[in-house]
Amino acid sequence: RRRVRTRHLLELKQRGEAWPMLTSYDMYTARIFDEAGIPVLLVGDSAANNVYGYDTTVPVTVEELIPLVRAVTRGARSALVVADLPFGSYEASPEQALATAVRFMKEGGAHAVKLEGGRPFARHVEALVNAGIPVMGHIGFTPQSEHTLGGYRVQGRGEQAEELAADARALQDAGAFAVVLEMVSSDSAKRVTAELTIPTVGIGAGPECDAQVLVWTDMAGMNTGRTARFVKRYADLGGTLARAAQEFADEVRGGAFPAPEHSFE
Ligand code: KIV
Ligand code: NA
Predict the structure, then answer these.
(1) What was the pLDDT predicted at 251?
(2) Among 84, 92, 109, 203, which residue is least crowded by beta carbons within 10 Å?
(3) Which residues constitute the domain of residue 251?
(4) Taking a C-beta distance cutoff of 8 angstroms, is the pair 171, 179 a contact?
(5) Region 191-209: what's the mean pLDDT?
(6) Statement to judge: residues 248 and 212 lie in one domain
(7) What integer is the mean pLDDT of 61-67?
(8) Do 195 and 79 share a structural domain?
(9) SS3 string of 184-240?
(10) DSSP 134-179
(11) Residues 101 and 188 in one domain
């Protein structure tokens, strides 16, 4: 199989074919999702929560994320691997954004990067695209700004719809190849998706987006806690792993493991 390219995603939009994206933070999930036909893998800064156990995405660093990107690019044969730029690593200037994005490409082996923000970040996006780095935008609810946005709240309703559409257009004009819409009302997401020539990737943004993304630990039930309304659980990996660990523990304590077939004469 050949490597997925950003132009393939554009072709899917033109043909009206929806496509899936998942986060991945390690080699096994990268390999499994790649072989399952997921064309785009995101090494999200949601690794802050799902790998490192932070409460928000704010504290995670470039140094913590780059090794995860390297693991995912090793595991993914054909998926396009997108690396998230973490909070504090790109906002100050297009120059800072470029320096950080270059590290994710050179040290991590990423094929593209993603950053949060609309019109104020068009210059940052443009600098990266000019340097040959494909950029995915991310607007609507942007978790790195949760303290400004006042928590997890749906974006793009009412008067905000115009602002959101302007942000989306600015990212497209700056050269972004796709834009994530997070927790955006379905109406607003539908409008942005129709206006843009580049694909929209929804998470909690309704059924009209060109693509859908979920955090893998949410969709596979690794995260056994409460999840957002927009999450659908497709598996209970957390339960499955807990049962496997319990059974192993029981068999070790009871002497059933290891059996002769697991032992050498
Ligand atoms: O970090 C992440 O997982 C994301 C997706 C939810 C889009 O940014
Ligand atoms: Na993210």
Answers:
(1) 98
(2) 92
(3) 237-265
(4) yes
(5) 98
(6) no
(7) 98
(8) yes
(9) ECHHHHHHHHHHCCCCEEEECCCCCCCEEEECHHHHCCCCCCCCCCCCCCCCCHHHH
(10) -EEEEEES-GGGHHHHTSS--BS-TTHHHHHHHHHHHHHHTT-SEE
(11) yes
User: What is the number of residues in the chain?
Assistant: 265
pTM for the full predicted model = 0.97
| Cα 33 to middle of ligand 1, angstroms | 16
Write the single-letter amino acid at 152.
Y
- Ligand 1 centre from 42 Cα, in Å? 7
In our burial notation (b when 16+ CB lie closer than 10 A, e otherwise), range 173-212 reads: ebbbbbbbbbbbbbebbbbbbeebebbbbbbbbbebbbbb
Tokens of 136: 């995915």
Phi, psi of 106 (to 5 degrees): -75, -50
Q: Which residues are annotated as a binding site for Mg(2+)?
A: 45, 84, 116
Rounded Cα gap, residues 48 and 33, in angstroms: 20
Read off the tokens for 51: 């790998």
Catalytic (active site) residue 182: yes
- The mean per-residue pLDDT over the stretch 20-48 comes to 98
Cβ 203 vs Cβ 214: under 8 Å: yes
Q: Which of 93, 83, 92, 150 minimizes the C-alpha distance to 115?
A: 83
